[in-house]
Amino acid sequence: MTIKLDYKQLNPHRILIALEGRLTALNSQALKTDIHTLVEQGNREIIFDLSGVSFIDSSGLAVFISTLKMTRESGGWMKLSALPEMPASIFKLTLLDKVIDLYPDVDSAIKAVEE
Amino acid sequence: MAITSVGISIEPVILSVGTVVLLSLLILQVPGIVTGSRKKNIGFRLLSLGAVFYACYYIYWRYGFSLNRDALWFALPLVLAETYSILDTIFFALMMWKPAERRSPPPLSQATVDIFITTYNEPAELVKWTVEAANKILWPNKKVYILDDGNRKEFFDLAREYGCEIITRGEEWKGKPRHAKAGNVNNALLQTSGEFILILDADHLPEPYFIQRIIGYFRDERVAFVQTPQHFYNIPPGDPFGSDAPLFYGPILKGKDGWNSAFFCGTNAILRREALLELGIVEYVETSVKQGKRGLQVLNKWLRKKSNWSRISLQAYKILKSELKAVKRELKKGGPLEELYGRLLKVLKETGYFNLLPKEIVSAFDITRSKEAIPLLPISTLSVTEDMATSIKLHSRGWKSVYHPDILAQGLAPEDLKTALSQRLRWAQGTIQVLLKSNPLTVKGLTLAQRIQYFTTIYSYFSGFATLIFILSPIIFLFTGLAPVTSYSGEFLWRLIPFLLFNRIMFRYAARGTKVTRGEHYSVALFPVWIKAVVSVLSGRNPKFVVTAKERQSGRHYSAIRVQAFFILLSLASVLFCLYRIVTGGDVNHLGAGINIFWAGYNILHLFTIVRAAFYNPPADWEKPSPETIIRCRENR
Lengths: 115, 637
Hints:
The complex is a heterodimer. A five-stranded mixed beta sheet of chain A has the order 1-2-3-4-5. The longest helix of chain A is centred in the first third of the chain and has 16 residues, at about 25-40. In chain A, about 45% of the residues lie in helices and about 35% in strands. Chain A is an alpha/beta fold. Chain A has one domain: 2-Layer Sandwich (Transcription Regulator spoIIAA). The model of chain A has no long low-confidence stretch (mean pLDDT about 90). By secondary structure, chain B is of the alpha/beta class. Chain B folds into three domains: about 5-95 and about 460-550 and about 555-615, no CATH class; about 115-280 and about 375-410, Spore Coat Polysaccharide Biosynthesis Protein SpsA, Chain A (Alpha-Beta Complex); about 280-365, no CATH class. In chain B, the strands form three sheets. Chain B has a seven-stranded mixed beta sheet, with helices on both faces. In chain B, strands 7-12-9 form a three-stranded mixed beta sheet. The N and C termini of chain B lie far apart (about 65 Å). In chain B, about 40% of the residues are buried. At the A-B interface, helix 1 and helix 2 of A face helix 9 and helix 12 of B.
């Protein structure tokens, strides 16, 4: 079971990562490694487009928390956007929505960071 | 002072009813009282009702009618110690009321399992057998990982030789708290992906069918972990150090399992990754919220301090105050911390406060947990007994647990008294830490039964104080003739004896089929360890996680038994002194002397167990089985 990752460079330090598929324990390690490689390449500002994600489990959430830590420690940030209703429920269940900002769509996330 | 009803004394009636019930149980030959798995516990329930009834009857009489008011300094501590024991009886009866009987369900065939072998300083020569046994586990979707916290070269070679993975702490751990075994497992959890995790201590050799036997329990999607017993293959004849815990890994955990309160015991268990990570995330959120709220409080305090006023302009102060109010308001509404803390930090920087504030205030608004190497700590780091604290958290989130009583792994027990005692001290200290940091009586989300079950375990570690009083009481009487009761008479005996008999028979019935004598002796003889654990933790000294030595430590360990030896000698002296007074015609209450000599003898017998252990040498013809022998024996089965 794989999760597809596409990314677009928005500026030298900023990328938009679009994910597609089910984000579970089975693929979260591979995804984490890919994202961390991108951060190590200097992309310390990350916006996620999660509109193509149909399911996220706790291991998937752990990827976002690790990425948040990694980007912040590199002097950047991470934003999550366009999360469909189904996977959003795990954010509510674990109360993670109390910590991490969830933007309704990619544009509002970009607007927020530009402000 | 008899309780009467219509002028008839009812004590003999109660006594005779008790005797009849006891006799009938004996005639029916305990434990074969009733057969059939569900009905089996009727015998225990009858006995426990009898024990609790007589316990209440006895303690009611003790408080109401028998306290020696001329020696309250002696009478009160004793009656309090007795109350402790009676509550212990009640907790035991509740625990054993409906023990779970488990049978392996059909395995979950597609499950992926990561096998974690945790090690810190154990030699590669020992760990290699655990790796070999783990490789031999019959399960297609498994991956074996050595979690080497010592980052030793020979373990990389070992992993290569056995074709397994190795995980050590990375650069991110430098200068950060390591959290001992809990940190080691958490580090690996965030680098692996199996749906389930089998945790093994470095010396525990799993059976080939370990996963097959218990993975089926996870068909119930709310089951977070399945615990199996710890069993040791190196225990010398007679178990001199009381390492075997058949009561705990038998009736007690079965009893707790009946209330969905079985513990995770740190090894020989399979855990669901989803449950652990959920726990880690919830803990991350709670800590971030708590830390931020505390940060706001401290920041407010700092702003109120007059000495800080001159350091910043009034305008900056006003801007920050109004932002603080807004953040507090939004925090109450549950607004995301990332945004709120971000806003606050921005204002702190713009107003010039950022560089003036103490670091701990600023770091309170950090949601990346920069003080920690990794952001998620699923295995609790609150206590040196990380397993119990993790179980409480899982249960409080509504997860279920299972205790499967078949022995599925064999490990090494401490081989000398000093190591055995330091292990018990760590367990006790960790359990008391749990009471302080994650009190099961107040943690949100536990059921009443779970609260009682966790509290029962914590409560048992306070027994050292009661034991000390029970040891001192006969000594005081035999030396001074001073009695804690108004009189030693038939009245006293006919209340005490049925209670004691019921209590003993109930306990023995619950433990049927398991050898518990050594464990009972140790629970008394270790009273200085239990007292030390309680006092050290309550006085704020934080215990450290110590890896239990896997080899016999050389030398005699007399210093470990000083207290017990002192009380043995004192008890003996008190008995001899009292006998001397009787022989020389002194004024001695003979019934009182008889009862107290009996208790002094009982105490000496229990305390002597540990003295014997300090002098223990394995028999010359006893050869300790090697891990290789255990594995080869399994192959030949």
